[in-house]
Amino acid sequence: MSIVIGIDVGISTTKIVGIDEQGIVMSPFRIKATDPITSLYGAFGKYLHDNKIKLEEVEQIMLTGVGAAYIDENIYGRPTGKAQEFIADGLGARYESNLERMIVVSMGTGTSLVKCDGSDIRHIGGIGIGGGTLQGLSRIMLKTDDIRQVATLAMDGDISKINLLIGDISAKPLPGLPMTATASLFSNAKTNATREDIAIGLIYMVLQAVGSATILSSLESGIKDFVLIGNLTLLPQCKEVYPAMEKLYGVHFRIPKYSEFCTAIGAALSYIQKR
User: Fold this and answer.
1) Alpha carbon distance 235, 28 (integer Å)
2) Do residues 185 and 205 lie in contact, with contact meaning Cβ atoms separated by under 8 Å?
3) Which residue ranges form the domains of the chain, and what is each CATH number?
4) Is the pTM of this model over 0.70?
5) Can you point out the beta strands (E) in 118-247?
6) Which end of the chain has fewer CB atoms surrounding its CB within 10 Å, N or C?
7) Quick one: what percent of the chain has pLDDT higher than 70?
């Protein structure tokens, strides 16, 4: 058996996948990153152990992500290379979505946007809003930076008590804007807003900002398919925010099966394609 390992060494988490000789993704998993080197070696060792993979069966290790810059040697003596992160985003999203033309939205600590048009994969921009924004604001406003806890709180929140909606400022829908569309984020917040209301307001703000930036980035290309990858795709509120934006703008937001592992998958694929 011959396996190519892809490892995405991020700011807060390290993700690892293996791709076997048949091109099948094997048992992806992630661990919290205390520091890049410790998390990388820990993730790699655990992955081999849990999947009963012998070290000599690893044909190649491919690193990507900001933490990859700290690694300049072969991992446990196995051939180790690096994949450009934006290319890995595109390759992984293309593999998982089966789309050839799309904008890949990497929702990590911040958000990067990668345009894919066949074999042409290029970084077209991004915004400094993402999971880090949600954590920081939650730390200040909710006294926690546990994203899972924030998402759970948000399930009992009322977004109409935080955001100003079109229905709040108009007696009837405006052209192309239903009464439930957002007019202004957090503009309707009251001093007695509950933690649950604040939580849903923060999540909606981040997700809507990312969605709006994505739509604006696509205007010149005419691309209507957007593939969301990264940790924020795990938020259950994605299933509320993005379908509403799809109806409003006539676009398609897609979250693939292994959305949080797409960059690691793409890192492995960057080697496999050049064999």
Assistant:
1) 19
2) yes
3) 3-82 (3.30.420.40), 100-256 (3.30.420.40)
4) yes
5) 120-127, 164-165, 182-184, 225-229
6) C
7) 100
